Structures are given as C-alpha cells and as structure tokens.
Inverse folding.
C-alpha cells in the first residue's frame, strides 16, 4: 500500500470542496450544502408550523387529512420523497424544475412533517392551566394561541428546531443521488477522478460535516439550558 | 349575582354535580368546602364555563350560561378566576401579566393600563416586583400577582379555587390577608378553600359539598359550632385536629 | 412538464442550449481541475451545435439513470452523455447519427481473465441504468452485477478487489485506465460483448431539431472538425491512443 | 405527465415484480440484522457512557458525537470504499470474498443508529426521578442492584417507544444502501424505472411497502403504549 | 443511637449544616422543625448518608459514617427512610414494593417475606391493597405503604422527611395515626414535620432549626408553651394561626 495516506488530494481540490464550480458555474460543495440546508430549514419551519397547528384543529375534516399526510411522509425514507419530487414536481408545476430545487422541495416536505411534530409537542406541552387562565380573563381562542401558547411553545421548541436543522444538514447529502453537486457529490466526483484516495476524501468530508453539525448540536444544548423556564414553583 | 337551579354535570359516568341549587347575592362571600373529589372545583369552574353544565339553569350576572346568545368571552371578562397553581404567564413580566387582558380586550390605553396595574400591585404589596418574571417570585407572591391580574379586568365576581393549597405554610398568611382585604371592598366572591380560619372570619356563608351534592349551607358561626350533617361533622373534626 | 413542441425554435428564443452531460467521465465529460468547468468530447460536440445555432451553452451534469427522465421532462434539450443507441431507447428518444463508436469490453486485474468463462459466478461492476448492465447480464448470467452510481466508483471497487471486472464501453474503460494511478496492474482483455454506437438524444418526434443536429454532425465530419475533436481527446497526444475506426454518416 | 400511460401490471407480476419482491427481502434482511446489532451496540455504548470508568465514558461520548453528527451516506461510503486503506490486506480479501456490500451497509447502519439508541437509553434512565435511586439506596441496595431492580425495569418501559422509532429509522435509512450496489427495495424500484421508464408505478409500489412496514411497527408501539405503559402501572 | 458532633456541610458556597451537635437515644422520638430551607432535610439525609457530611463526626448505631470501613449499604438496611413524595416503585405491586429489599438483601425466603409484608400491611390498614400498583392508591395510602416498606427491613431507626406535606388534609390524619402507633413500639424515630399536633403529642424532644443551625432543643411542652428563641416564636405564631 506504500505511503498510507496522502492528503494532497484534499489541498489540491480544496476550493472545489468548498464552493464547487462557483463562480464559473453554479455554487457547489460545502457552500451548496449549507445553502440547501438553510433554505429548506426556513421553508420547513413555516410549513411545519402551519401543519402542526392544523393537525391540532378540532375539526376532523382538517386535522385528519393533515395527520394522515404527516404520517405518510414520516413513514417514508427521505430518498423516496426525493424521488417522488423528482417525478411529480415538473408534472405539478408544469415546467422544468432544477435538481437543487427538487431537493429543496423534497427536504422541505420531509422535514415539515417532523417540524410539525415538534410544533405539536410544543403546543400540547404548555400546561392546560395557562390556557384556562387566559380564557378566564376573557381572551378569545386565537388571542390565547397568539399571546400565551405560541410564545411559550415556540421558545420551548427552539432546541428541537436546531436539532432538526442538524438532521437537515446531514440529509442534504442525499442530494447526491439526483446529481446535485453538494459536498458529498463533489467528494465522489473528486474520488472518481483521482480513484486512489477514497479514505482521505471520505474522512475529510466526514470531519467537515461533523464540525458543522456539532456546532449546531452544541448550540441546541446550550439553548436548552438557557431557555428552560425555571419552574413556577 | 350567581344562581344555580337544578344544575347537573357528568364526566362520562361520574355524576360530579348533582342537583345544585345555590344563590350568591351581590357583595356576598361564599366559601365552598368539602372533601377531595366532592366537586368543589367543578362547581366553581362552571361559573365562568371552564366546565359546561349538562342540565339545569345557571344565571351569572344576569346572563344565562346555557343561552347560545350569551357572549361567553364578555362574561368571563367580568369574572376574575384565581387558580390553585397561579398559572401566571412565565414569558411575561409581572406588569405584562396584569396588563395583557385590559390591553387586548378592553383596549385600555397602555399608560392607563399600567397605572391601574401599579395600583393593584401596590394593593397586594408587590409594587417593586413590576419587572420581575414569575419564576423569580415565591409562591405567595405569585398568587398575589395572580389576584392582581384577575382584578385588573375590574370584575364583578372573583372566584378562588384553593388559592393557598399549593403554598408553603409560611406563605399562606400573606395571600389570605389580600383576600380578606378584598372581601372588605364588597366584591362578590366564591372561594373554595380548606382554610377554616378564613372561612370563619371572612365568609358570609359556607357551603359544604360531598359527592357532587351541596349537603349544607349555613352562616359560618353556625356551621362551625354545630354542623348539621354527619359528613360535615366528620370533615370538620378531621380538618381541625388531624391527630384524632 | 411541458417540453416545447419545437425545441429548435424554443432554443433560439431563449438563447441557450441546455445539454445533459457527464461530469466525471474523462474524456467525454469531466470537471477540469484548474478551471473547475466541464470539458470533454461530448462537450465539444455540444459547443459546435450551439455555435451553429448562435446560442449559449448550459451544461447539466446527468447520470446514466437520470438522463432520459431529464430529457422527457424538458429539463434538458439534448443528451450528450455517452448514450448508446439501442432499439428500446429509440422508442423513448430520437437519436442523432452515431458520433462515436465503440464496443463493450471488460477491465480486469492483469492476467486474471482470458475468456468470459473466467468471469462466471464473479462480481462484475458497472453503472446503474446503463446498457452495459443489461448486456452483461445477458452474456454472463451467472455473474453478480453490482451497479454503482458511476464507472469510476466501479473501478475503485475493482482496485480494492470488491469486484473481479468492470464492464462498459471500451472508450470509457480506456479513459478510466489512463487515469488510474496504478494502471500497470490492469488490462482490457480482447473480449467484446456488444457494439456501442453513441448518439445524441433528443425528444421523440422533434423532427426539426433532430434534422438540424444531424446536418451539423455531417458538416462537422466533412469539414474535419469531428476528426479534430476525436484527435484532441483520444489521439496520440492523449493517454488513450485510440484509432478512429468510424466516420459520421447518415446511414446509422 | 399528461401523456403518461399507466401500466400497473409491471409491478404486480412478471420479472419486475420479482425484482421488487427480492428488493423487499433484502430491505428486511438489512433491517433485521441492523436492528439487532444496533440495539446491542447501543446498549453497550449507553452503559459505557454512564459508567464511572473515564476512558469508557470518553470513548462513548466521542463515538456518540461523531457518528450522530455525520451523514449516514458518508459513513456508508467510508465503510465501503474508505475502510480499504485502514484494514489489513487479509481482512480486505476476506471481506471481498463475502457479500461486503451488504456488510458495509449493515455496519454503517448499525453504528449510525446505535449512537442514537444509546442516547435514548440514557435519557430513559435519566428520566427516572432520582428519588427512586435514593429510595433504593436507602433500603440498602448497592448502586448496581438499584439499577437492576429499580431503575432499569422502569427505564426500559419508557425507552421502548423511542427505541422502536430508531428501528423504524434504520429500516427507512436502509434505502441508502443502494448507493453501494445493495439491491434493496429502492434500488430495485429505480432499476425497474430505468428499464421500463415506468417510474411512477415502480415508486408507488416501493412507497406502499415502506408505508406498510412503518404502519405495522407504529401500530405495535401503540399497542405497547396501551398495554404495558398502562396508566395504572407506571407513574 | 445517633450522635452528631460538630457536623458541617456545604453545598458549594452554601453552609447548610453549621456545627450540628445532636444526640438521639434509643427509643427516642425526635421531631425536627423550622422554616423552609433551614436544613432539616439535609440533616435527616446525612443520617443514612444520602448526603455525605463535610466536617465533624457522625455515629449511627455505633458505626462511624466517616470511617471508610463502614459498610454503608448494611447500615442503610438498618435505617428506614420515609420520603415526602413516598417514592414507591411504580413498576411493582404493593406487596413487591415491601418484599423486594427483604428478599434481595436479607435473603428472606419468599413465603416468609410475604407473610411479614402482609402483617405490616394489616398494621397500616391496607391488607386488601396487596396486589394494587402505587398509582392506584391515594397519597395517604401510598405513604402508609412506604412506611410498611421501610419497616419490612426491621430497622432500628426510622427517619421521616415531611411525610405528610404532600398529602391532602384529609389524608394526613391516617398517616400520622400510623406513625403514632409506631412511636408506641419503642423504635427510634427522627421526624421532620410541620404537624405541631403530632409533635406535641408524640415527640420526646423537638429540635428547631434555622439557617443550618439547631437553635433550640426542648421537650415539646416547653417548646410550645415557651419557645426561647425569637425565630422559633415567630415560626410557631405563623404556623398556628395563619390568619393573623
Ligand atoms: N376533566 C375531568 N374528567 C373526568 N373526571 C373529572 C374531570 N375533572 C374532575 N373529575 C372528577 O370529578 C370529581 C370532582 O372533581 P373536582 O375537581 O371538582 O373535586 P374537588 O372537590 O375540587 O376536589 P379537590 O379537593 O381534590 O380539588 C372527581 O372525582 C374528579 O376525579
Ligand atoms: N473515458 C471514460 N472514462 C470513464 N467513464 C466513461 C468514459 N467515457 C464514458 N464513460 C462513462 O461510461 C458510460 C458510458 O457508458 P454508459 O454507461 O453511458 O453506457 P450506457 O449508459 O449504457 O450507455 P449506454 O447505456 O448507452 O451504453 C457513461 O456513463 C459515461 O459516463
Ligand atoms: Mg379542586
Ligand atoms: Mg425538606
């Protein structure tokens, strides 16, 4: 096996790992990974919020289909969801959809289902006494939700949201499958081109992912400690 | 002010309120007592319809609670409710806890609402805590803020559901003092409590419940000296001297 | 999706030709390390067609599995991704004249394979959705075919001893071998299992566009430009040293 | 899409149906082997994480953090392609003579999932009020005995639902094994698509199978919740 | 039986036990009282080393708790501890809650352990609940089971940490009755409680704590009639008449 490791392959292609073909071509590599994760995260936060609220609506004609949808998505591998988007999006939107958008939609759809569960748990976790106290002062239902339940619930949910974001960062690696040149794809490309340093390349990107995710995991833990309501006796 | 006529309520099979007939006149302080599970909380919660009733008639402040046309939110704004567990909003400061409902429901101007809130805080002895958060207060202080919050809507009726039973013995006194002070202002009050000292000194009338039935209604002096019902005798004996 | 009925007109209108190409298959299509852009044999043909049309080129990396759906959904206008012409595919897309000709062979560790029998019961690597995958299943039914996302990955598996051979078109194999770090250990035995004429793929029934592309290809052959492109990527100055044993003609 | 001709027969009979069935089998195989291994490894790591022996605790912590914070796909590639340079030649030869694609997928899934399982087990144990430990110690039980008789029996009940959830995740994540040529369900669905161009039918079939799998597992958890986490027993 | 000599304990900065000197003789019933946060729980928890002490000497049943050679598990088996929150094992039936320690630690044969457990259950009035689970019992019943569980190890000393303060008023009596009964058997008991009725009637001695210091130690009749320390006077006043 000769010289065991040769990390020149990393230094030689460093720019490519970081930003792909940018600015000569589209953004790729780590930059695209972060872009995909951030955009999907923002979108799925709002979708998840809406889904979560709808899933708690008393009217079964609304909550039942919403819950069914959430459960179906949660029952599927992300890979399947991405393949579905790949097929259905162009049909639904009546126009061509770039792969990176396909992946963003897939990640958003998938993650919204999980976000909705976080929202749900956050809302259900607010003690009944809070709602009762608010109702007793004469606040209407939507006011109770807006002024009392959501502010407390969202704050309680922040650590889970951050954790979900970490999952998203990891999940963007599946964009590889449909040929979006994010970090994993770029790594395989370099691996394919050089064909001699798979160990070096995969260790390198694993470490890249690790630092990125670990930073957010730590943030979530820190927030969890910071944001915990001190128990009201 | 409050008039129960043949009120019944069931939780599934459980008959929690059984033919309640009870009248509270304006300015009256009624203490409700009775053993655990007897339906006291349920009774008091029907008054602002936190629990709907199944049968009978319930008139509060001239409005029929079973009438579909009654605006329940408006009625609730006229009734202050103080819970056993305080239920202050942990994400709002003491001041905001008190001003939230006046601002959002009564549309009171902010300045006025805050002035009122400060008057109330002074009255419960917590003026200096205006910017504190609930978690920074002791239980007794939280409960006094909860009373101030209920009073901020200038209610005609105040309901208390065991307001001192989650408190350490040392803090009970401060909350009872505020309640006694309040009773002196002539507001209508219904209080569920085990504090027989309070009942004896402040209540105009005591109602004793067991198994969803109001077994006895009497002036406090009569009730304590000479309870009519056997169950009430037992209850008082246990409560006043836990040893024998 | 709504792919345009007349692609030629649509391309002219939007001023850009979107081509699906391979991005890690030297010398057909791969990312140049220095410029970080996609270059190669396929790309030169696309550039020539675009130049004739007077439009810009946009290159979209595709895989063997994704190129057909991409075309059908209108994400790309043309496939220039080492696609073999075969009747089954011809039902789905219209092919141009053959612009490259090769045959499917194997790459193996030196001296391990003399005949197809030596591969019986072995693992053979190839790429998902390729004709190579389907051909080898027919010619060596006892072999286990492992399909990777791309050929270099399959070759890596060969290097690490995970498969006994990698099979695909000779031109591709030659390309892989040329780039391999320890090429002395490998060889391409003279075992051909199929002819592999490559065509550019276009949407079915898009006659204007197909005619235009074919006309352009024939012109390139006449002017010698096609030969020049071949020499640039496969000629003596390259590591491949392939002979150009075909000409672009109208009968294929 | 408007012109798309549905042809459900290809996924309900014939060659392509057989492909899908064999894909199901492989998915189930990976899942079952993976679940058993991931549970064992996860339990081991959880115990190490809670032990008083520092090197064990640190190893467990590093293991947890690293494997939970890197994508499974990268881990799969690493074990399949990247492990080659690290392992001795003899081991590589042996591995290559076996069904190493399958093994690499199982190893990656096991390690990835075990890190999550370990955390679930640990938080199950931590969720038992510390007073339970105090009560047990007060009765004269040693630390380990208290764990054995009082803490773990309670923790296991609480941990089962999140644990099953992880098992479900493992089953779903097994789809990533397709990237190294393991012919599981998603791989076969994709094969059917590229041979027949009938992706809609192929993916519908695979979707139904995945949903059935997760519905069954979820239903089992609900049953467990009702039966074992009976409100009359656990507090 | 229990001897504190110059015992100190800190939680970080906080000095929770400050020079404790206290002696409990065999068969004695000591009640510890004092305001919230004064160190009562910590004190009682040091006796079976749920909290280790930082300084001083603590001898329990002839064994030195600071001595490394003392087998702390063995000592704990001789000391029954009853918690405020009962802490029954929720996954075990009432009977198994009681027999677990005798079976596993004393290796008592199963039949014998169960017979003993039934005797104890009968003594606390819960023989018919043998197969129930803790969550099916009321608070008072749970606490009585907890006492039976502690007694099952035939301890020489029983420690109680506010055994009635998590209970509804009606249930306090039943637990205090069991404890009084127990005191009659001559076992050594240390009880942290606010139940002054119990202290007055059952205790041999009362210790009053504040800020980690034992301020006063006296016979109950003396302590209640004429508390020496100002803090104790205040405390008793508040506790006995919460209204004024
Ligand atoms: N939401 C509910 N659903 C079903 N049963 C209920 C509900 N709320 C109360 N109950 C039952 O109704 C009965 C009366 O309850 P209630 O809370 O009114 O009693 P209480 O007199 O206030 O008791 P406590 O002194 O313990 O507060 C109890 O048996 C209780 O278990
Ligand atoms: N020089 C090369 N080096 C490495 N890989 C190459 C090279 N040339 C082509 N390839 C790859 O080999 C494949 C060509 O065979 P391909 O897989 O396209 O066969 P294919 O997809 O079945 O084509 P076809 O299926 O039409 O035969 C393409 O995927 C292409 O990306
Ligand atoms: Mg109540
Ligand atoms: Mg205490």
């Amino acid at each position: 096996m000769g010289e065991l490791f040769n990390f020149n392959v990393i230094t030689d292609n460093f720019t490519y790992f970081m930003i792909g073909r940018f600015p000569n071509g589209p953004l790729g590599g780590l930059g695209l990974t972060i872009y995909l994760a951030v955009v999907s995260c923002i979108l799925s936060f709002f979708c998840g919020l809406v889904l979560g609220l709808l899933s708690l609506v008393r009217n079964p004609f609304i909550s039942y289909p919403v819950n069914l949808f959430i459960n179906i998505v949660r029952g599927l591998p992300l890979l399947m969801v991405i393949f579905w988007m790949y097929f259905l999006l162009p049909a639904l939107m009546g126009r061509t959809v770039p792969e990176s958008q396909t992946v963003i939609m897939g990640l958003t759809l998938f993650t919204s289902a999980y976000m909705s569960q976080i929202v749900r748990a956050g809302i259900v976790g607010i003690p009944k006494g809070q709602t009762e106290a608010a109702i007793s002062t004469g606040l209407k239902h939507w006011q109770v939700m807006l002024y009392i339940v959501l502010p407390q619930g969202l704050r309680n949910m922040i650590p889970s949201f951050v954790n979900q974001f970490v999952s998203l960062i990891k999940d963007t690696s599946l964009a590889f499958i449909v040929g979006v040149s994010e970090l994993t794809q770029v790594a395989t490309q370099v691996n394919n081109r050089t064909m001699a340093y798979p160990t070096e390349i995969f260790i390198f990107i694993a470490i890249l992912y690790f630092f990125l995710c670990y930073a957010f995991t730590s943030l979530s833990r820190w927030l969890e400690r910071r944001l915990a309501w001190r128990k009201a006796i | 002010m409050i008039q129960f006529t043949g009120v019944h309520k069931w939780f599934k099979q459980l008959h929690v309120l059984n033919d309640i007939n009870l009248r509270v006149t304006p300015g009256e302080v009624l203490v409700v007592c009775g053993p655990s599970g007897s339906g006291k909380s349920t009774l008091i919660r029907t008054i602002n319809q936190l629990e709907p009733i199944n049968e009978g008639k319930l008139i509060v402040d001239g409005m029929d609670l079973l009438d579909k046309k009654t605006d329940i939110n408006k009625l609730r704004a006229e009734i202050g409710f103080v819970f056993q567990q305080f239920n202050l909003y942990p994400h709002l400061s003491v001041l905001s806890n008190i001003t939230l409902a006046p601002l959002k429901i009564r549309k009171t101007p902010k300045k006025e609402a805050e002035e009122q809130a400060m008057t109330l805080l002074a009255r419960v002895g917590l003026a200096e805590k205006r910017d504190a958060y609930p978690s920074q207060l002791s239980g007794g202080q939280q409960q006094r803020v909860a009373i101030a919050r209920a009073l901020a809507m200038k209610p005609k009726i105040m309901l208390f559901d065991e307001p001192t039973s989650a408190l350490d013995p040392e803090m009970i006194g401060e909350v009872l003092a505020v309640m006694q002070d309040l009773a002196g202002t002539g507001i209508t009050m219904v209080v569920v409590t085990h504090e027989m000292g309070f009942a004896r000194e402040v209540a105009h009338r005591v109602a004793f419940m067991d198994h969803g039935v109001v077994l006895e209604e009497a002036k406090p002096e009569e009730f304590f000296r000479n309870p009519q019902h056997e169950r009430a005798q037992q209850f008082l004996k246990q409560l006043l001297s836990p040893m024998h | 999706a709504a792919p345009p009925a007349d692609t030629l007109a649509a391309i002219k209108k939007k001023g850009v030709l979107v081509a699906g190409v391979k991005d890690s298959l030297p010398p057909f299509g791969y990312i140049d390390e220095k410029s970080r852009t996609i270059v190669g044999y396929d790309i030169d043909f696309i550039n020539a067609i675009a130049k004739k049309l007077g439009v810009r080129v946009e290159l979209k990396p595709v895989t063997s599995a994704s190129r057909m759906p991409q075309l059908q959904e209108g994400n790309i206008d043309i496939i220039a991704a080492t696609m073999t012409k075969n009747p089954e595919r011809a039902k789905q897309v219209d092919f141009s004249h053959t612009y490259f000709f090769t045959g499917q062979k194997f790459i193996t560790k030196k001296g391990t394979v003399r005949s197809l029998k030596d591969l019986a019961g072995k693992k053979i690597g190839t790429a998902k959705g390729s004709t190579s995958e389907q051909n080898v299943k027919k010619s060596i039914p006892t072999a286990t075919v492992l399909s990777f996302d791309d050929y270099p990955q399959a070759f890596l598996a060969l290097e690490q001893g995970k498969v006994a051979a990698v099979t695909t078109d000779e031109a591709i194999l030659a390309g892989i071998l040329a780039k391999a770090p320890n090429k002395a250990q490998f060889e391409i035995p003279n075992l051909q299992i199929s002819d592999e004429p490559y065509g550019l793929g276009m949407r079915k029934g898009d006659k204007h566009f197909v005619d235009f592309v074919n006309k352009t290809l024939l012109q390139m052959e006449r002017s010698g430009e096609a030969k020049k492109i071949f020499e640039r990527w496969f000629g003596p100055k390259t590591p491949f040293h392939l002979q150009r044993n075909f000409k672009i003609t109208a009968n294929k | 899409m408007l012109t798309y001709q549905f042809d459900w027969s290809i996924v309900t009979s014939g060659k392509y149906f057989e492909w899908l069935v064999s894909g199901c089998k492989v998915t189930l195989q990976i899942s079952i082997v993976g679940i058993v291994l991931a549970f064992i490894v996860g339990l081991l790591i959880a115990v190490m994480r809670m032990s008083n022996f520092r090197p064990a605790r640190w190893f467990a912590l590093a293991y947890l953090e690293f494997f939970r914070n890197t994508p499974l796909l990268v881990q799969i590639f690493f074990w399949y392609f990247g492990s080659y340079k690290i392992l001795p030649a003899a081991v590589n030869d042996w591995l290559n003579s076996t069904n190493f694609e399958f093994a690499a997928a199982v190893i990656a899934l096991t390690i990835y999932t075990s890190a999550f399982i370990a955390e679930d087990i640990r938080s199950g144990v931590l969720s038992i009020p510390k007073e339970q430990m105090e009560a047990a110690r007060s009765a004269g039980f040693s630390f380990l005995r208290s764990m054995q008789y009082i803490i773990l029996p309670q923790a296991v009940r609480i941990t089962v639902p999140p644990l099953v959830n992880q098992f479900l995740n493992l089953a779903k994540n097994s789809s990533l094994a397709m990237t190294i040529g393991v012919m599981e369900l998603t791989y076969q669905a994709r094969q059917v698509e590229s041979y027949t161009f009938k992706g809609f039918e192929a993916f519908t079939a695979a979707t139904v199978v995945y949903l059935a799998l997760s519905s069954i597992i979820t239903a089992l958890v609900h049953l467990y919740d009702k039966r074992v986490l009976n409100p009359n027993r656990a507090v």
Summary: Chain D touches chain C through 20 residues (CB under 8 Å). The first helix of chain D runs from residue 9 to 12. Chain D has ten helices and no strands. The mean pLDDT of chain D is 87.
